[in-house]
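User: Second chain of the day. Same drill as before.
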Amino acid sequence: MSNPRYQSPKGVHDILPDDHLYFSFIKKVVRHHCRRAGFRRISTPIFEDVEVFKRSIGESSDIVEKEMFLFESKSGKKYALKPEGTAGVVRAYLEHGLSNLPKPVEFYYIEPHFRYNRPQKGRYRQFHQFGFEVLGESDPAIDAQVIYISHRINYDLGIADRLTLQLNTIGSSEDRKQYREDLVNYYTGKERSLCEDCKRRMYENPMRLLDCKEEDCQILASMAPKLESVLSEESKEHFSLLQEYLTELGVKYELNPTLVRGLDYYTHTVFEFWSKKEGSQNATGGGGRYDGLVELMGGESTPAIGYAAGMERIVEYMKEAGIRPPNKDKVEVFVAQLGLVAKKKSLSLINELRNLGINTVGAIGKSSMKGQMGLADKLNAKYSLILGQIEVQEGTIILRNMEKGSQEIVPYEGIVEKMKTLLGEKKLSSKKLWEE
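Assistant: Same format as last time:
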């Protein structure tokens, strides 16, 4: 096959029907757990004022410095395609007075995001994330619940056994102020062993030195001072209680003192789900507490915690695990017809079956019965209903079980009820979709 004239841009990809089965299943699992926990869905715009991200994520972060898609409106206003979800949710929380809702305020989202980075396995320039945010509560029990829901989603998607939960605390902003000084003192004189990014990070955001993926930087990070030595008693107690709650919930975790996350707004709890094979190189998602972000963006001091996961990466793990999501698009009934009179009757039959909730296909444009039945085979239809001029005259229809290869002639008048019985009484015709 020759290369098509037009192709999708580098780093973005089409989600084809087979992959949409995975995405739909992930969305269903996420919605199920979030609704059960009292979360309400929120959607924020694809693009925001660039200052929303600079203010929240931090101007020294890799995302702001190198990975945002920026554009300018005709009026000269600068915008960015959203690289992550939390900043937009907090902006909406403040803009629409959602802080007046009973606390904690719980949101979830399922959205596309954009980052201008080097495309590679599991990392794209347009990618999809689901996430959830809890605002207005500082209790470590909330942290444990967010982590548990994240873990449970992984479990229900069949990938939990392929992941490890990495857990750390980065303390309060006051704790980190002293720790940053300790890190700069430790790395001073060692600049020659640092990668170019870490040479810059050393003075702009020294904690990011700890999670660099370059081998030499990782060696230095393993010997760096530990944040634990400057944590306040309050920060230690928060982290200790979180671990007790996770143990109570049966969630296994690994303490990881080098885990800091890549965004400036995090405080206290940080966590990620890492591949057991590839470690942080192929993490599915992560999150943490961001108690100062709402205030940073102009609101009142508001404790908060969130989590986000990459759906493309989850799909990759589900495929590796041999997990095939349920296919609700499967054709249940194929209606074949021959002759003008039969075609007219089949049109109303097809729509009546569809209105019952039965996935029904009819090859109305095809004249050959052989061609129609060949299509029914390709679609893996469970049953075929065959209607020709003779059947119309006699008031019958041919019912063929495609899986068994058997068929019978049945009265046309009772075929709808018969299909309901064969396919199960779960099909409800009287209810409108919004009533279900």
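The two ends are 46 Å apart (CA to CA).

User: Great, on to the next one.
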